């Protein structure tokens, strides 16, 4: 029965998207419902691959788009026995409701590869699922495990579904494959998406947490310079230059190099990077960050400052040659520093700060750096260094108005003075 169908992955990594259709879909042919034509499924899949291929320049964007399109095709083919051309507004509303409460056997409890190598062949990973139940870092630290019963879909995840599928159907319409965009026809989006009034909460470290964190990185470096000079530089760069960890790790479209730090004709130092959306930008380098770079380079046996066009990897592997590839390893480095900081905070009696730091991710360092700098720098300067598409995004980091608003609320009374006779 269709409702008992256990999903198998449809899309492999980018390098395997060009594999012939028969090979790619061979593992799902036998499970397709009888009343859906394999040629129509092939047509859906071919157009989906072409659409995904357009996002090959950004690994993370490709993964996000692959995830949502894969879910839609799984649901459409196997549960609704419909192709993309058959879907209408009502179908997409049902799909959105489905995503908020998928069947338990569609939910996994950990992120795993879609395909694995077996006897020289790429085969579907039997434990992969389209949805994944997750828990907070603190809950994991407390020994708790993810449970399929606790799966929830966040508002940001719902917004991503709307945005990605709308882009897909716009593309299909431009290709004359479908007519109209069923996502854009959903009028009452409010029943799926909540409107938030006021500023978005920026997840960042407090001044105390950051002071302890960078001090921890320095202590680790003093204990083991060979290993942790790199840790200290990474923590400094994420905070001082508002970098995303993907901007420090090497990937197919960009390999961060020492020569990406450069001096202009006015003797000002800059750092060139390629960030979200495959956009290149130049980040102004502060004097403190320049000193951090000098210390890091000297620890590697290099001159204090890079020469123009220097191609040495910015974040080299400790074992073997070449740059650190992918974000996972850098994320582990940051998390190790956070873990040590949490222990120090607890020892010094800052239990609450230690507990909130348990939820922190590497991206919080970028948020923290931006939040601190908008207090003292023109927002346009922070905007450009951070790579924000508009000043409105940078404004979210300005919390002066929130502080004033809360200060005016502190003395509000609940009880008025009692009447006198």
CATH topology of the largest domain: hpI Integrase, Chain A
CATH superfamily descriptor of the largest domain: Intergrase catalytic core
Strand content bin: 5-15%
- What is the β-strand count? 7
For the record, what CATH class of the largest domain applies?
Mainly Alpha
CA-based shape: globular
Give me the strand/helix succession. HHHHEEEEHHHHEEEHHHHHHH
- Structural class by helix and strand composition: mainly alpha
Discrete helix count? 15
Number of domains: 2
Q: How helical, in percent, are the residues?
A: 40-55%
Please give the radius of gyration in angstroms. Answer: 25 Å
CATH architecture of the largest domain: Orthogonal Bundle
Ends: how far apart?
79 Å
Write the layout of secondary structure elements.
Layout: H1 21-24, H2 38-53, H3 59-79, H4 89-100, E1 107-108, E2 115-118, E3 121-124, E4 131-132, H5 137-141, H6 155-174, H7 207-223, H8 225-240, E5 261-263, E6 269-274, E7 280-284, H9 287-299, H10 328-347, H11 351-357, H12 363-373, H13 379-386, H14 391-395, H15 400-409
Helix pairs in contact: 2-3, 3-6, 7-8, 7-10, 8-9, 8-12, 10-11
């Amino acid at each position: 029965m269709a409702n008992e169908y256990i999903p198998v992955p449809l899309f492999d990594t980018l390098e395997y998207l060009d594999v012939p259709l028969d090979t790619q879909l061979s593992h799902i042919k036998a499970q397709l419902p009888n009343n859906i034509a394999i040629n129509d499924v092939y047509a859906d899949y071919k157009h989906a691959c072409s659409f995904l291929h357009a996002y090959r320049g950004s690994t993370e964007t490709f993964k996000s788009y692959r995830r949502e399109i894969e879910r839609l095709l799984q649901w459409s083919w196997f549960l609704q026995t419909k192709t993309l051309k058959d879907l209408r507004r009502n179908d997409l509303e049902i799909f959105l409701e489905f995503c908020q409460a998928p069947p338990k056997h569609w939910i996994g409890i950990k992120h795993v590869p879609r395909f694995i190598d077996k006897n020289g062949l790429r085969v579907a990973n039997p434990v992969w699922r389209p949805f994944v139940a997750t828990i907070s870092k603190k809950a994991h630290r407390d020994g708790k495990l993810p449970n399929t019963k606790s799966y929830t879909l966040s508002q940001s995840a719902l917004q991503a579904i709307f945005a990605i599928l709308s882009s897909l159907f716009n593309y299909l319409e431009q290709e004359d494959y479908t007519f109209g965009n069923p996502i854009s026809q959903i009028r009452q989006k409010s029943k799926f998406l909540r409107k938030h009034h006021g500023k978005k909460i920026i997840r960042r470290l407090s001044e105390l947490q950051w002071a302890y964190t960078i001090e921890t990185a320095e202590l680790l470096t003093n204990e083991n310079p060979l290993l942790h000079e790199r840790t200290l530089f990474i923590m400094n760069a994420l905070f001082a230059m508002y970098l995303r960890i993907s901007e420090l790790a090497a990937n197919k479209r960009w390999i961060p190099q020492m020569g990406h730090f450069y001096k202009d004709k006015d003797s000002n130092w800059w750092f060139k990077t390629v960030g979200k959306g495959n956009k290149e930008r130049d980040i102004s380098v502060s004097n403190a960050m320049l000193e951090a770079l000098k210390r890091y380079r000297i620890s590697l046996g290099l001159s204090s400052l890079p020469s123009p066009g220097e191609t040495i990897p910015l974040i080299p592997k400790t074992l073997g040659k070449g740059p650190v590839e992918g974000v996972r390893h850098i994320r582990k480095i940051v998390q190790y520093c956070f873990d040590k900081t949490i222990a120090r905070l607890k020892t010094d009696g800052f239990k609450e700060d230690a507990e909130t730091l348990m939820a922190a991710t590497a991206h919080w360092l970028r948020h923290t750096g931006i939040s601190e700098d908008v207090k003292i720098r023109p927002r346009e300067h922070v905007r450009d260094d951070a790579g924000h598409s508009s000043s409105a995004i940078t404004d979210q980091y300005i919390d002066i108005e929130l502080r004033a608003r809360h200060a005016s609320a502190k003395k509000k009374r609940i009880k008025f003075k009692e009447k006198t006779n």
